[in-house]
Amino acid sequence: MLAILHPDIALDSEAYRQTMHFLENLPGVSVRVHQVQGAKQRLTEVYLLGETKSLNKEDIEALPAVERAIRISDDYRILGRHKDDRRQSGFTYNDVTFDQSNLNIFAGLCAVDVPEHVEQMMQALEDNGQVCTRMGAYKPRTNPYSFQGHGKGCLPWVFEKAGKHGIKVIAMEITHESHIEEIDHCLEQLGRPTGVMLQVGTRNTQNFELLKAIGRQTTYPVLLKRGFGITLNESLNAAEYLASEGNANVIFCLRGMKTEAGQPHRNMVDFAHVPAVKRLTRMPVCVDPSHSVGSRERAPDGVLDVMHATAQGVIAGANMVLVDFHPKPEKALVDGPQALLMEELPAYLEDIQLCHDTWKKRQQIYRRLKESATE
Ligand code: PEP
Ligand code: MN
Protein backbone atom coordinates (compact mmCIF):
# COMPACT_ATOMS: atom_id res chain seq x y z
CA MET A 1 0.00 0.00 0.00
CA LEU A 2 1.16 3.51 -0.77
CA ALA A 3 -0.12 6.54 1.14
CA ILE A 4 0.33 9.83 -0.68
CA LEU A 5 0.34 12.72 1.77
CA HIS A 6 -1.10 16.18 1.17
CA PRO A 7 1.31 18.23 -1.00
CA ASP A 8 3.87 20.27 0.92
CA ILE A 9 2.83 18.75 4.26
CA ALA A 10 5.19 19.91 7.03
CA LEU A 11 7.11 17.05 8.60
CA ASP A 12 6.81 18.74 11.99
CA SER A 13 3.01 19.18 11.77
CA GLU A 14 0.59 17.46 14.15
CA ALA A 15 -1.20 15.82 11.19
CA TYR A 16 2.07 14.24 10.01
CA ARG A 17 3.00 13.12 13.52
CA GLN A 18 -0.39 11.47 14.13
CA THR A 19 -0.40 9.80 10.72
CA MET A 20 3.10 8.38 11.09
CA HIS A 21 2.34 7.20 14.62
CA PHE A 22 -0.62 5.20 13.31
CA LEU A 23 1.23 3.76 10.33
CA GLU A 24 4.39 2.85 12.23
CA ASN A 25 2.37 0.89 14.75
CA LEU A 26 0.53 -1.30 12.25
CA PRO A 27 1.43 -4.92 13.09
CA GLY A 28 3.75 -6.61 10.57
CA VAL A 29 4.04 -3.45 8.48
CA SER A 30 7.22 -1.52 7.86
CA VAL A 31 7.12 2.07 6.73
CA ARG A 32 9.37 3.80 4.22
CA VAL A 33 9.08 7.52 3.53
CA HIS A 34 9.97 8.81 0.09
CA GLN A 35 10.17 12.48 -0.89
CA VAL A 36 9.43 13.53 -4.45
CA GLN A 37 10.41 17.03 -5.51
CA GLY A 38 8.20 18.15 -8.39
CA ALA A 39 8.47 21.37 -10.40
CA LYS A 40 5.83 23.07 -8.25
CA GLN A 41 5.51 21.09 -5.04
CA ARG A 42 7.08 18.51 -2.79
CA LEU A 43 5.21 15.23 -2.41
CA THR A 44 5.68 12.83 0.47
CA GLU A 45 4.91 9.20 -0.27
CA VAL A 46 4.76 6.61 2.50
CA TYR A 47 5.27 3.01 1.42
CA LEU A 48 3.70 0.39 3.66
CA LEU A 49 5.49 -2.91 3.20
CA GLY A 50 4.88 -6.38 4.62
CA GLU A 51 1.48 -7.51 5.96
CA THR A 52 -0.64 -5.01 4.06
CA LYS A 53 -3.34 -7.29 2.60
CA SER A 54 -5.71 -6.76 5.52
CA LEU A 55 -5.29 -2.99 5.53
CA ASN A 56 -8.33 -1.01 4.55
CA LYS A 57 -7.69 1.70 1.95
CA GLU A 58 -10.43 3.91 3.42
CA ASP A 59 -8.88 3.71 6.92
CA ILE A 60 -5.56 4.91 5.56
CA GLU A 61 -7.23 7.69 3.58
CA ALA A 62 -8.99 8.86 6.76
CA LEU A 63 -5.64 9.70 8.41
CA PRO A 64 -5.15 13.48 8.72
CA ALA A 65 -2.02 13.79 6.54
CA VAL A 66 -3.09 11.37 3.82
CA GLU A 67 -4.51 12.63 0.55
CA ARG A 68 -5.08 9.20 -1.00
CA ALA A 69 -3.96 5.62 -0.78
CA ILE A 70 -3.05 3.28 -3.64
CA ARG A 71 -2.86 -0.48 -3.47
CA ILE A 72 0.40 -1.29 -5.22
CA SER A 73 1.59 -4.57 -6.67
CA ASP A 74 4.92 -6.07 -5.68
CA ASP A 75 6.52 -5.27 -9.02
CA TYR A 76 8.24 -1.91 -9.41
CA ARG A 77 6.59 -0.43 -6.32
CA ILE A 78 7.99 3.05 -6.73
CA LEU A 79 8.61 3.37 -10.46
CA GLY A 80 5.70 1.21 -11.64
CA ARG A 81 2.18 2.12 -12.65
CA HIS A 82 -0.48 0.73 -10.37
CA LYS A 83 -4.27 0.60 -10.52
CA ASP A 84 -5.79 4.05 -9.85
CA ASP A 85 -2.26 5.44 -9.85
CA ARG A 86 -2.42 9.02 -11.09
CA ARG A 87 1.09 9.91 -9.94
CA GLN A 88 3.01 11.95 -12.46
CA SER A 89 6.05 10.76 -14.29
CA GLY A 90 9.31 12.55 -14.65
CA PHE A 91 11.41 15.23 -13.03
CA THR A 92 13.28 18.43 -13.73
CA TYR A 93 17.06 18.53 -13.38
CA ASN A 94 19.18 21.62 -14.01
CA ASP A 95 16.25 23.31 -15.84
CA VAL A 96 15.72 20.35 -18.18
CA THR A 97 12.48 18.40 -17.81
CA PHE A 98 12.35 14.68 -18.39
CA ASP A 99 8.97 12.97 -18.57
CA GLN A 100 6.96 10.48 -20.58
CA SER A 101 5.60 13.04 -23.01
CA ASN A 102 8.57 15.19 -24.00
CA LEU A 103 11.84 14.49 -25.79
CA ASN A 104 15.49 15.32 -25.07
CA ILE A 105 18.39 14.52 -27.35
CA PHE A 106 21.83 13.57 -25.98
CA ALA A 107 24.16 13.60 -28.96
CA GLY A 108 27.84 13.45 -28.10
CA LEU A 109 31.07 11.51 -27.92
CA CYS A 110 31.02 7.86 -26.92
CA ALA A 111 34.34 8.52 -25.20
CA VAL A 112 36.07 11.80 -24.36
CA ASP A 113 39.39 11.89 -26.25
CA VAL A 114 41.00 15.26 -26.92
CA PRO A 115 39.82 18.80 -26.01
CA GLU A 116 39.56 19.79 -29.66
CA HIS A 117 36.94 17.11 -30.41
CA VAL A 118 34.93 17.90 -27.28
CA GLU A 119 35.03 21.57 -28.26
CA GLN A 120 33.84 20.86 -31.82
CA MET A 121 31.05 18.63 -30.54
CA MET A 122 29.79 21.13 -28.02
CA GLN A 123 30.02 24.01 -30.47
CA ALA A 124 27.86 22.03 -32.93
CA LEU A 125 25.33 21.31 -30.19
CA GLU A 126 25.17 24.95 -29.19
CA ASP A 127 24.79 26.02 -32.83
CA ASN A 128 21.83 23.65 -33.09
CA GLY A 129 20.11 24.73 -29.89
CA GLN A 130 20.98 21.61 -27.90
CA VAL A 131 21.54 21.67 -24.13
CA CYS A 132 22.31 18.00 -23.47
CA THR A 133 25.14 15.71 -24.52
CA ARG A 134 26.85 12.41 -23.81
CA MET A 135 30.53 12.22 -22.81
CA GLY A 136 32.17 8.99 -21.69
CA ALA A 137 35.01 9.45 -19.21
CA TYR A 138 34.91 6.00 -17.60
CA LYS A 139 34.63 3.34 -20.31
CA PRO A 140 33.79 -0.30 -19.56
CA ARG A 141 35.72 -2.24 -22.21
CA THR A 142 35.59 -5.88 -23.23
CA ASN A 143 39.36 -6.01 -23.68
CA PRO A 144 41.46 -4.92 -20.66
CA TYR A 145 44.11 -3.51 -23.02
CA SER A 146 41.66 -1.21 -24.82
CA PHE A 147 41.43 2.50 -23.93
CA GLN A 148 39.58 2.71 -20.61
CA GLY A 149 38.60 6.38 -20.76
CA HIS A 150 40.46 9.37 -19.34
CA GLY A 151 38.62 9.05 -16.02
CA LYS A 152 38.60 11.93 -13.55
CA GLY A 153 41.52 13.62 -15.30
CA CYS A 154 39.32 14.93 -18.11
CA LEU A 155 36.39 16.05 -15.96
CA PRO A 156 37.56 19.65 -15.28
CA TRP A 157 38.01 20.61 -18.91
CA VAL A 158 34.94 18.69 -20.11
CA PHE A 159 32.73 20.39 -17.51
CA GLU A 160 34.23 23.81 -18.22
CA LYS A 161 33.61 23.47 -21.93
CA ALA A 162 30.06 22.29 -21.25
CA GLY A 163 29.42 25.40 -19.19
CA LYS A 164 30.89 27.60 -21.90
CA HIS A 165 28.54 26.12 -24.51
CA GLY A 166 25.40 26.19 -22.38
CA ILE A 167 25.22 22.43 -21.89
CA LYS A 168 22.93 21.68 -18.95
CA VAL A 169 23.12 17.90 -18.69
CA ILE A 170 25.88 15.44 -19.63
CA ALA A 171 25.07 11.72 -19.66
CA MET A 172 28.22 10.14 -18.23
CA GLU A 173 28.65 6.46 -17.51
CA ILE A 174 30.16 5.49 -14.20
CA THR A 175 31.45 2.01 -13.44
CA HIS A 176 32.27 2.39 -9.75
CA GLU A 177 30.64 4.27 -6.89
CA SER A 178 33.83 6.28 -6.28
CA HIS A 179 33.14 7.99 -9.63
CA ILE A 180 30.10 9.77 -8.12
CA GLU A 181 32.37 11.50 -5.65
CA GLU A 182 34.91 12.35 -8.37
CA ILE A 183 32.22 13.96 -10.51
CA ASP A 184 30.60 15.75 -7.59
CA HIS A 185 33.91 17.08 -6.27
CA CYS A 186 34.91 18.40 -9.68
CA LEU A 187 31.56 20.06 -10.38
CA GLU A 188 31.59 21.65 -6.93
CA GLN A 189 35.10 23.02 -7.39
CA LEU A 190 34.13 24.58 -10.70
CA GLY A 191 30.94 26.15 -9.32
CA ARG A 192 28.65 23.68 -11.12
CA PRO A 193 28.91 24.98 -14.71
CA THR A 194 26.86 22.01 -15.97
CA GLY A 195 24.93 18.99 -14.72
CA VAL A 196 25.52 15.25 -14.96
CA MET A 197 23.17 12.33 -15.46
CA LEU A 198 24.85 9.20 -14.13
CA GLN A 199 24.71 6.43 -16.72
CA VAL A 200 24.71 2.76 -15.73
CA GLY A 201 25.90 0.69 -18.68
CA THR A 202 24.42 -2.56 -19.90
CA ARG A 203 27.30 -4.52 -18.33
CA ASN A 204 26.33 -3.13 -14.92
CA THR A 205 22.53 -3.28 -15.07
CA GLN A 206 22.53 -5.92 -12.33
CA ASN A 207 25.52 -4.63 -10.37
CA PHE A 208 23.30 -4.24 -7.34
CA GLU A 209 25.89 -2.64 -5.07
CA LEU A 210 26.59 0.02 -7.70
CA LEU A 211 22.84 0.58 -8.13
CA LYS A 212 22.37 0.94 -4.38
CA ALA A 213 25.22 3.44 -4.11
CA ILE A 214 23.82 5.53 -6.97
CA GLY A 215 20.32 5.24 -5.49
CA ARG A 216 21.49 6.60 -2.14
CA GLN A 217 22.25 10.00 -3.65
CA THR A 218 19.67 12.33 -5.16
CA THR A 219 21.94 15.06 -6.53
CA TYR A 220 22.21 13.36 -9.92
CA PRO A 221 19.48 11.65 -11.97
CA VAL A 222 20.24 8.27 -13.49
CA LEU A 223 20.16 6.78 -16.97
CA LEU A 224 19.89 3.01 -16.59
CA LYS A 225 20.66 0.88 -19.63
CA ARG A 226 18.72 -2.30 -20.18
CA GLY A 227 20.81 -5.43 -19.51
CA PHE A 228 21.88 -6.97 -22.81
CA GLY A 229 21.10 -10.56 -21.90
CA ILE A 230 18.35 -10.48 -19.29
CA THR A 231 14.58 -10.09 -19.42
CA LEU A 232 12.86 -6.73 -19.49
CA ASN A 233 11.37 -7.53 -16.10
CA GLU A 234 14.85 -8.08 -14.64
CA SER A 235 16.07 -4.76 -16.05
CA LEU A 236 13.03 -2.89 -14.70
CA ASN A 237 13.68 -4.42 -11.29
CA ALA A 238 17.23 -3.09 -11.53
CA ALA A 239 15.74 0.39 -12.01
CA GLU A 240 13.59 -0.18 -8.95
CA TYR A 241 16.77 -0.81 -6.93
CA LEU A 242 17.72 2.83 -7.54
CA ALA A 243 14.30 4.06 -6.47
CA SER A 244 14.10 1.79 -3.44
CA GLU A 245 17.29 3.41 -2.15
CA GLY A 246 15.80 6.87 -2.55
CA ASN A 247 16.49 8.07 -6.10
CA ALA A 248 13.45 7.80 -8.37
CA ASN A 249 14.80 10.22 -10.97
CA VAL A 250 15.52 7.40 -13.36
CA ILE A 251 15.36 7.16 -17.15
CA PHE A 252 15.30 3.71 -18.68
CA CYS A 253 17.35 3.18 -21.84
CA LEU A 254 16.75 0.56 -24.53
CA ARG A 255 20.02 -0.26 -26.34
CA GLY A 256 19.35 -3.53 -28.12
CA MET A 257 19.77 -7.14 -27.04
CA LYS A 258 22.84 -9.29 -27.57
CA THR A 259 21.89 -12.14 -29.89
CA GLU A 260 23.13 -13.53 -33.19
CA ALA A 261 19.59 -12.93 -34.43
CA GLY A 262 20.29 -9.21 -34.41
CA GLN A 263 22.84 -9.42 -37.23
CA PRO A 264 23.78 -7.50 -39.30
CA HIS A 265 23.20 -5.02 -36.46
CA ARG A 266 25.47 -5.04 -33.41
CA ASN A 267 22.45 -5.84 -31.23
CA MET A 268 18.81 -6.76 -31.83
CA VAL A 269 17.01 -3.42 -31.89
CA ASP A 270 14.34 -3.54 -29.18
CA PHE A 271 12.58 -0.22 -29.60
CA ALA A 272 9.18 -1.90 -29.86
CA HIS A 273 9.53 -2.03 -26.06
CA VAL A 274 9.28 1.77 -25.75
CA PRO A 275 5.48 1.70 -25.21
CA ALA A 276 5.75 -1.41 -23.02
CA VAL A 277 8.14 0.28 -20.59
CA LYS A 278 5.90 3.37 -20.52
CA ARG A 279 2.90 1.20 -19.72
CA LEU A 280 4.61 -0.80 -16.98
CA THR A 281 6.43 2.11 -15.32
CA ARG A 282 6.35 5.88 -14.99
CA MET A 283 9.96 6.26 -16.21
CA PRO A 284 10.79 8.37 -19.26
CA VAL A 285 12.22 6.01 -21.90
CA CYS A 286 15.44 6.57 -23.82
CA VAL A 287 16.63 4.82 -26.97
CA ASP A 288 20.27 4.37 -27.91
CA PRO A 289 20.32 3.69 -31.66
CA SER A 290 24.15 3.82 -31.84
CA HIS A 291 24.86 0.86 -29.58
CA SER A 292 21.83 -1.00 -31.00
CA VAL A 293 22.82 -0.74 -34.65
CA GLY A 294 26.59 -0.34 -34.26
CA SER A 295 27.52 0.75 -37.78
CA ARG A 296 27.06 3.42 -40.43
CA GLU A 297 25.32 1.08 -42.87
CA ARG A 298 22.76 2.76 -45.06
CA ALA A 299 19.55 1.48 -46.63
CA PRO A 300 18.88 1.94 -50.38
CA ASP A 301 16.61 4.86 -49.44
CA GLY A 302 19.79 6.75 -48.47
CA VAL A 303 19.02 6.80 -44.75
CA LEU A 304 21.48 5.35 -42.21
CA ASP A 305 20.21 2.38 -40.18
CA VAL A 306 21.05 4.39 -37.03
CA MET A 307 18.65 7.09 -38.21
CA HIS A 308 15.95 4.59 -39.11
CA ALA A 309 16.26 2.96 -35.68
CA THR A 310 16.07 6.38 -34.00
CA ALA A 311 12.91 7.14 -35.95
CA GLN A 312 11.36 3.83 -34.88
CA GLY A 313 11.96 4.63 -31.22
CA VAL A 314 10.81 8.24 -31.38
CA ILE A 315 7.69 7.55 -33.42
CA ALA A 316 6.75 5.02 -30.73
CA GLY A 317 7.02 7.71 -28.04
CA ALA A 318 10.63 7.60 -26.81
CA ASN A 319 11.50 10.53 -24.52
CA MET A 320 15.25 10.65 -24.97
CA VAL A 321 17.79 9.75 -27.63
CA LEU A 322 21.36 8.88 -26.65
CA VAL A 323 23.51 8.88 -29.75
CA ASP A 324 27.20 8.79 -30.71
CA PHE A 325 28.61 11.61 -32.82
CA HIS A 326 32.25 12.40 -33.58
CA PRO A 327 33.97 15.17 -35.57
CA LYS A 328 36.59 12.70 -36.81
CA PRO A 329 35.26 9.14 -36.39
CA GLU A 330 38.48 7.66 -37.80
CA LYS A 331 40.33 9.21 -34.84
CA ALA A 332 37.76 8.19 -32.20
CA LEU A 333 39.20 5.97 -29.46
CA VAL A 334 35.92 4.08 -28.95
CA ASP A 335 33.06 3.20 -31.33
CA GLY A 336 34.16 5.42 -34.23
CA PRO A 337 32.50 3.19 -36.88
CA GLN A 338 29.00 3.88 -35.52
CA ALA A 339 29.41 7.63 -34.95
CA LEU A 340 27.35 10.18 -36.85
CA LEU A 341 29.15 13.20 -38.32
CA MET A 342 28.87 16.84 -37.29
CA GLU A 343 27.39 17.79 -40.65
CA GLU A 344 24.66 15.18 -40.15
CA LEU A 345 23.45 16.78 -36.93
CA PRO A 346 20.92 19.33 -38.31
CA ALA A 347 19.20 16.78 -40.58
CA TYR A 348 19.15 14.23 -37.79
CA LEU A 349 17.51 16.70 -35.40
CA GLU A 350 14.96 17.59 -38.07
CA ASP A 351 14.16 13.91 -38.64
CA ILE A 352 13.73 13.35 -34.88
CA GLN A 353 11.41 16.35 -34.57
CA LEU A 354 9.31 15.03 -37.45
CA CYS A 355 9.00 11.66 -35.71
CA HIS A 356 8.14 13.21 -32.35
CA ASP A 357 5.42 15.35 -33.96
CA THR A 358 4.15 12.30 -35.80
CA TRP A 359 3.94 10.40 -32.50
CA LYS A 360 1.71 13.20 -31.17
CA LYS A 361 -0.49 13.05 -34.28
CA ARG A 362 -0.75 9.27 -33.98
CA GLN A 363 -2.10 9.66 -30.47
CA GLN A 364 -4.82 11.97 -31.80
CA ILE A 365 -5.98 9.33 -34.30
CA TYR A 366 -6.52 6.81 -31.54
CA ARG A 367 -8.03 9.35 -29.17
CA ARG A 368 -10.65 10.13 -31.84
CA LEU A 369 -11.29 6.42 -32.31
CA LYS A 370 -11.86 6.01 -28.57
CA GLU A 371 -14.16 9.03 -28.44
CA SER A 372 -16.29 7.79 -31.31
CA ALA A 373 -16.56 4.35 -29.67
CA THR A 374 -17.89 5.85 -26.43
CA GLU A 375 -20.38 8.24 -28.09
C1 PEP B 1 27.78 3.61 -23.96
O1 PEP B 1 26.67 4.18 -24.00
O2 PEP B 1 28.85 4.20 -24.13
C2 PEP B 1 27.84 2.17 -23.71
C3 PEP B 1 28.97 1.57 -23.34
O3 PEP B 1 26.67 1.57 -23.91
P1 PEP B 1 26.16 0.13 -23.40
O4 PEP B 1 26.32 0.11 -21.91
O5 PEP B 1 24.71 0.13 -23.82
O6 PEP B 1 26.97 -0.90 -24.12
MN1 MN C 1 30.12 3.11 -27.09
TrEMBL record:
It comes from the Bacteria. Keywords: Transferase. SUPFAM superfamilies: Aldolase (SSF51569). InterPro entries: Aldolase_TIM, Class-I_DAHP_synthase, DAHP1/KDSA. Residues 101-349 form the DAHP synthetase I/KDSA domain. It holds the Pfam family DAHP_synth_1. This is 3-deoxy-7-phosphoheptulonate synthase.
